[in-house]
Amino acid sequence: MLSLIKELLGVFISAVTVGGIITGFVTKWIDKKFIKPVSVEIKDLRSELKEMEIKRLRSQILTFTGSLHRGVEHTRVEFEDVMRMHDSYDELLKKTNKTNGYVTKEMEYLYKCYENLDTIGKGE
Length: 124
Known about the structure:
Layout: H1 2-69, H2 76-95, H3 101-115
Helix pairs in contact: 1-2, 1-3
């Protein structure tokens, strides 16, 4: 009886060892075939989303400043909204190691116009 238990225990240990080796190979294969490619895709998508957001914010900022150049009047709330957009835009540019001198120049014009707003009847 004792020899049977020893034999079964030996078979069990061998099976567990082989199972562990097989599990290791399967795990590495799954990682190589599925997890790493998905991780690369996610990284690429994040990069694309940042680029799209940069373009969207840039467009909105330049549309607003273009309207200022054409003499369109805006409320303080509208100005402040664009200022917040610009903060987000700057943050994204820093994260992607980019700069944009044109938007910076236009924001200088925006701040100049903002400082010249009357406080009476301008959306406060």
